[in-house]
Amino acid sequence: MSHYCDLAPEHPFHGPYHDHEYGFPVADDTILFERLVLEINQAGLSWLTVLKKREAFHNAFAGFDIDRVARFGDADRARLLDDAGIIRNRLKVDAVIHNASVVRTLQAEHGSFKAWLDHHHPLPHADWVRLFKRTFRFTGPEIVNEFLMSTGYLPGAHRDDCPVQARILAAGPAWATTHQEA
């Protein structure tokens, strides 16, 4: 079975994501929200499809501005469902708007989306899935796993022999810090 570390290098879309984003710890709530949006939209599709549409998602969802997306109404939903540049799935669009409101609540209660994630870290994967299903919409086991791996909360984004893995470890992802303390 091929690993992302075998497929991504030098690919015009996968390469930059693999080399500079995937698995690195994320502190910015806007980027965390973007990753959640992209993972939700990837469900049932290839990651390449999402990466190719990433700029269109950025434009369609107001630069992933959490406050703005949380205020999206019926006209915005209609605009998004007519936007051929993104994934036009009503359940996914509704989940993104709903989840922006949830993130705003988490920010109010915990100071940031990241602080909420940190508060719950470390959890076993099954517990993360239960937490996300209680908290967000359209977040099944694969979406939760990829979101947490891509943002440094769960290991597995890269093989140990991948050159990017050393850079990720140097950045101090939550999973490595927890593992070293255990």
Automatic annotation (TrEMBL):
<dbReference type="InterPro" id="IPR005019">
    <property type="entry name" value="Adenine_glyco"/>
</dbReference>
<protein>
    <submittedName>
        <fullName>DNA-3-methyladenine glycosylase</fullName>
    </submittedName>
</protein>
<keyword id="KW-0479">Metal-binding</keyword>
<dbReference type="GO" id="GO:0046872">
    <property type="term" value="F:metal ion binding"/>
</dbReference>
<keyword id="KW-0862">Zinc</keyword>
<dbReference type="InterPro" id="IPR011257">
    <property type="entry name" value="DNA_glycosylase"/>
</dbReference>
<dbReference type="InterPro" id="IPR052891">
    <property type="entry name" value="DNA-3mA_glycosylase"/>
</dbReference>
<dbReference type="Pfam" id="PF03352">
    <property type="entry name" value="Adenine_glyco"/>
</dbReference>
<feature type="binding site">
    <location>
        <position position="5"/>
    </location>
    <ligand>
        <name>Zn(2+)</name>
    </ligand>
</feature>
<dbReference type="GO" id="GO:0008725">
    <property type="term" value="F:DNA-3-methyladenine glycosylase activity"/>
</dbReference>
<dbReference type="GO" id="GO:0006284">
    <property type="term" value="P:base-excision repair"/>
</dbReference>
<feature type="binding site">
    <location>
        <position position="18"/>
    </location>
    <ligand>
        <name>Zn(2+)</name>
    </ligand>
</feature>
